[in-house]
Write a structure and sequence with these properties.
- One of its GO terms (molecular function) is tRNA dihydrouridine synthase activity.
- Residues 2-210 form the DUS-like FMN-binding domain.
- It holds the Pfam family Dus.
- InterPro entries: Aldolase_TIM, DUS-like_FMN-bd.
- The chain has 252 residues and is an alpha/beta fold.
- It has 2 domains: 12-124, Alpha-Beta Barrel (TIM Barrel); 158-250, no CATH class.
- Helices cover 43% and strands 15% of the residues.
- It has 9 helices and 9 strands.
- Strands 1-2-3-4 form a 4-stranded parallel sheet, covered by helices on one side. Strands 5-7-6 form a 3-stranded antiparallel sheet. A two-stranded antiparallel sheet has the order 8-9.
- Helix 1 runs parallel beside helix 2 (47-60), helix 2 (47-60) packs across helix 3 and helix 6 runs antiparallel to helix 9.
- It starts with 18 loop residues before the first helix and ends with a strand.
- The structure holds flavin mononucleotide.
- Residues 1-3, 40, 68, 77, 101-104, 124-127, 129 line the site of flavin mononucleotide (FMN).
- Flavin mononucleotide (FMN) is lined by residues 1-3, 40, 68, 77, 101-104, 124-127, 129.
Length: 252
């Protein structure tokens, strides 16, 4: 079920006001499609309502349920912690696989979320925008000291940084074109920490009304020459390590 901010369109989380309509949509899809139907929901303020919602979806034919542990009014992910207790109760109430969503910022969160909720998997969104290497075991400086890891194993330079990830992303964009406004916002997300160190480069970037891949690769080179590298951190015992080309590979 798509984005939360579409009241007049009667879709996204605003469908939560109309359970019979959701039921009929899922039933129709499940009856007529050859592929399994998955749903993604937000929680209600009342746990029993959330459980009833999840059970209704299961009955209607949903085969996989992702639960974002925030209500539809809790829009700011940094302000509102996702309710992992509610996700755990949903997981206990249905037989279909459940994916937990909300507050996954690094692999430590993945493990604690799976343990806490009993979910079958996790989803992450906001953090991936700035750190697409999250599931390979890397974390940004912001989350370096967060979690219960043994300090000696926590926060070592993982040999990878956000500029490496951006370069990989740019190569993919050349291969699979996307609108420049999307590229622009990903550059801001991935280079945000570097731009804080060198705001003049950000200003120059913002002044470019027309971008090219060549210009962007040059900008990354310029940032590297200016120094102040902001690494991504990895746990030394992580099963994932960066290779020379920046792609992660299993070390075990
Ligand atoms: C760029 C972006 C696009 C998103 N698009 C959708 C969407 O189309 N449908 C949806 O249900 N949720 C969408 N979300 C919400 C996320 O799937 C997720 O539920 C939410 O961000 C909470 O997870 P997080 O705490 O890991 O960010 C989007 C989030 C982001 C950052």
């Amino acid at each position: 079920m798509p984005a939360a901010d579409c009241p007049e369109g009667n879709y996204g989380a605003f469908l939560m006001d109309n359970m019979p309509l959701i039921r009929s949509l899922v039933e129709k899809l499940a009856c007529n499609l050859q592929v399994p139907v998955s749903c993604k929901i937000r929680i209600f303020p009342d746990l029993q309502d959330t459980i009833a919602y999840a059970r209704m979806l299961e009955e209607a034919g949903c085969s996989l349920l992702a639960v974002h542990g925030r209500t539809r009014d809790e829009k700011d992910g940094r302000k509102f912690r996702a309710d992992w207790d509610a996700i755990r109760e949903v997981k206990k109430s249905v037989r279909i696989p459940v994916l937990a969503n909300g507050n996954i910022r690094h692999m430590e969160d993945v493990h604690s979320c799976l343990e806490h909720t009993g979910a079958d998997g996790v989803l992450s969104a906001e953090t991936l925008l700035e750190n697409p290497a999250l599931f390979a075991g890397f974390r940004t400086a912001e989350w370096r000291d967060c979690g219960n890891l043994d300090e000696s194993k926590n926060g070592e330079d993982g040999g990878l940084d956000q500029a490496d990830l951006l370069e990989e992303y740019l190569k993919l964009c050349e291969q699979y074109p996307v609108p420049w406004r999307i590229v622009r916002s990903h550059v801001h997300k991935m280079l945000g920490d570097w731009f804080k160190v060198h705001p003049e480069v950000r200003e120059e970037f913002n002044r470019q009304s027309k971008l090219t891949f060549e210009w962007l690769h040059d900008m990354v080179g310029k940032l590297r020459n200016l120094g102040g590298r902001v690494p991504l951190y990895a746990n030394a015992t992580s099963t994932w390590k960066a290779t020379e080309n920046g792609f992660p590979m299993s070390s075990s």
